[in-house]
């Protein structure tokens, strides 16, 4: 029995989406934690981390696809279909850009800089708060906790902006044009991940405003 059939058989129609979103959030936790730990022990000659990020990205694609399948098959949804679409796409964007960050680190053989791990930690913390927000979003029982998580995610994104700026300043001081191009590109991809997390937080907060 495929994953879709299992959900149809054992889950109330409007509960399927929360189950899937929680699975997506759990997957992002695993992916971002593995990325952060891999960055701390980075080795440009070992592509294990890149392969793991690729696997996570494919798993996220599968979960996102299942959400869209369920959206097409079910009339009853826990909140607006448009919001389900935005939330699913936003969560998938986080995984896409995290994988892209890993890919460019290896393609560029980019030297490790401290801002990589600083940004990866902010990404992991953002994913933890996304997980908390989605869990508390269920049945709109804890809107206060959801909003607090969203505020934290917005704060992490602001910090990431500062880390990006400082990282660019530091790498320009090297006066090495090739290094500047490589490091600046990776830093910008990592910062985009925090932007995508903030987009997810904004979507979740809008859902709470509508329904809580």
Can you describe what's shown?
With 212 residues, this protein is mainly α. It has a single domain, classed as Phosphate transport system protein phou homolog 2, domain 2 (Methane Monooxygenase Hydroxylase, Chain G, domain 1, Up-down Bundle). The chain has helices spanning 3-10, 16-40, 48-73, 81-108, 114-137, 143-172, 177-211. 83% of the residues lie in helices and 0% in strands. Residues 3-12 have low confidence and may be disordered. Belongs to the UPF0111 family.
On the 0-100 scale, what is the average pLDDT? 89
The CATH superfamily bears the name Phosphate transport system protein phou homolog 2, domain 2
Distance between the termini: 36 Å
> How would the global form be characterised?
globular
Please provide the count of β strands: 0
CATH class identity = Mainly Alpha
Strand content bin = under 5%
Count of spatially separate domains? 1
Poorly predicted runs are 3-12
Helical stretch tally: 7
Quote the CATH topology: Methane Monooxygenase Hydroxylase, Chain G, domain 1
Q: Which sequence of SSEs, written as H and E, runs from N to C? A: HHHHHHH
Keywords:
212 residues; mainly alpha; Methane Monooxygenase Hydroxylase, Chain G, domain 1; 83% helix; globular; UPF0111_domain; Put_Phosphate_transp_reg; DUF47 domain-containing protein; PhoU-like_sf
């Amino acid at each position: 029995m495929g994953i879709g059939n299992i959900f149809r058989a054992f889950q109330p129609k409007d509960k399927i989406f929360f189950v899937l979103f929680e699975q997506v959030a759990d997957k992002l936790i695993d992916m971002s934690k593995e990325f952060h730990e891999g960055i701390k022990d980075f080795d440009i000659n070992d592509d294990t981390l890149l392969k793991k990020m690729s696997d996570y990205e494919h798993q996220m694609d599968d979960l996102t696809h299942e959400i869209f399948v369920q959206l097409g098959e079910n009339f009853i949804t826990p909140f607006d279909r448009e919001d389900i679409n935005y939330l699913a796409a936003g969560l998938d964007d986080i995984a896409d850009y995290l994988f892209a960050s890993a890919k460019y680190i290896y393609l560029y053989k980019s030297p490790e800089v401290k801002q990589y791990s600083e940004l990866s930690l902010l990404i992991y913390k953002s994913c933890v708060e996304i997980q908390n927000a989605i869990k508390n979003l269920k049945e709109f029982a804890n809107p206060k906790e959801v909003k607090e998580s969203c505020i934290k995610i917005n704060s992490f994104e602001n910090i990431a902006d500062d880390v990006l700026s400082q990282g660019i300043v530091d790498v320009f001081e090297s006066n090495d044009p090739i290094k500047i191009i490589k490091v600046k590109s990776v830093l910008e991809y990592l910062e985009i991940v925090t932007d995508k997390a903030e987009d997810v937080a904004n979507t979740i907060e809008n859902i709470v405003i509508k329904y809580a």
